[in-house]
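re: that chain from earlier
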Amino acid sequence: MIQGIGASAGVAIGKAFVLPNWEWDLPEQKIDVGDLAREFDRLYEGIRTSKVEIRQMKDELREVVGTDESYIFDAHLAILDDPVFMNEIQGIIQRQYKAAEVAVKEAIDHFVTMFDLLDDEYMKERALDIKDVGNRLLKHLLGAPEITLPIDTQPFILVAKELSPSQLAHLNPNHVLGIATLAGSTTSHSAIMARALGIPLVVGLESKLEEPIATGDFMIIDGETGIVHLDPPGEIVASYTELQRRQQEERQRLKTIVEVQSVTLDGKEMELAANISSMKELDVALQSGTHGVGLFRTEFLYMDRSRLPQEEEQFDVYKSVAEKLDGRPLIIRTLDIGGDKQLDYFELPEEENPFLGYRAIRICLDKTDLFKTQLRAILRASHYGTVKIMYPLISSVEEVRAANKLLAEAKAELQAEGKPFKSDIEVGIMIELPAAVVIADMLAAEVDFFSIGTNDLVQFTLAVDRMNDQISHLYEPYHPAVIRMLKLTVDAAKRRGIHVGVCGELAGDVRALPIWLALDVDELSMSANAILQVKERLLRLQRRDSLALFDNILECPTSGQIHAMLAGFQPGNAVSGD
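^ sequence. v structure.
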């Protein structure tokens, strides 16, 4: 058994196909001064051809994984237009009299080495983008053929050192059972695309393999746990085959409750909505009977591209989602960048602790033109559905009022231009900071709804970065302090009579459902794949049992006791605090 990192859930069982490295070792090729013009012509023709290919891949991919993921290739086009990258290549040709392909290879190696030395996972992933684009350009300069996958229809598990978005774009999901890479991370472009395509993916195997994987090796990968088995014994194969069968049966069984109303045995209704970042995720959510979209992460419209999305571009996306929801609610979270979400073309200041720094609503209230462009697009889309606006990372009443002032300005502009929008559009905020919890009663007087972002709320309440391996074990959503934070927030919303939902990972955790029922939360918004599992659990519960359980949970001094109490909870049975 080999322990990698699970990056896209699912189990794959089959034979490996090892993708050769798409790289070349080039000898030094000096040129004469008179050949400079020819080398520059070759370089520019290679760039033009590469751009055509990338645009074709983007168009093809958009039909498969949705608009948001296809924007990854805008970042690749931006590299070919990047003056720093291009000046490096041109300088090597002109000053060192080297052939175009040698100059491109040296420039790739220079930037990849530089980025790899940085202690920044985001920049390491961008190094892969440069390598991908540079190797595509090299392919055209050398006249080398594209590396192809097996042409037969026998499905396989793809194994590669790294897998670039360009390579992944050419995969037929029907032929690829799963993917295993030696390098990579859960935040890479390839991981994002694998999840969108529904392909199991395990990354980070390089230091774990005693011997390299070869084409034809029989293997099993588990994209949930990150476990890989090479040439496993029969009992392991049988175990995972049975797991696959049970997972398929479970998916089929859950489909029978898609149209069933989300209500407990004693009549408590709960709206089960989806968190989405693409149209593909929306399709999955609709197939799962979603009540609507409780969180549309708009930052994905801004990422992996060369410029800010314009108003018309955003409007088209928001309108498409609203129309597809056909009257169901759509909560659009305004731009939430900063922290671990950076934009290549939008330079953010270097900060000692970016998670506590210049991000989300703080950027929007500072860059008002950027913010108002998004607000105008959302307002215009509100004419086509039940659209709502949600501000992230709110810590004060002043921030809400400042954001609403800009919203009012956007409304006035659209009114003057004669563009239709919903004038009484609902406005809400994410509760994800302890400061917001403490003044939740004051914030509730300013907005139409709350949505609790449990991921950040847990991190900020406990001062724990869950991505930090040394302290990630301290990230505890069921900490007594977190439970009390949740109660304070929901109680404040209920006293004011506003809608309150949850959109963090805890919303999709079936163990937490009795807590949400006891608190009388109105909506849970989660990954589309979790909706039916949560609904099934909801249909078997009664709110009155959850109330008795929650009273005991509030008295628990440790998270371990809370875990035990939730694990022992059975519908129809009271649970003691012992």
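Confidence is low (pLDDT under 50) at residues 574-578.
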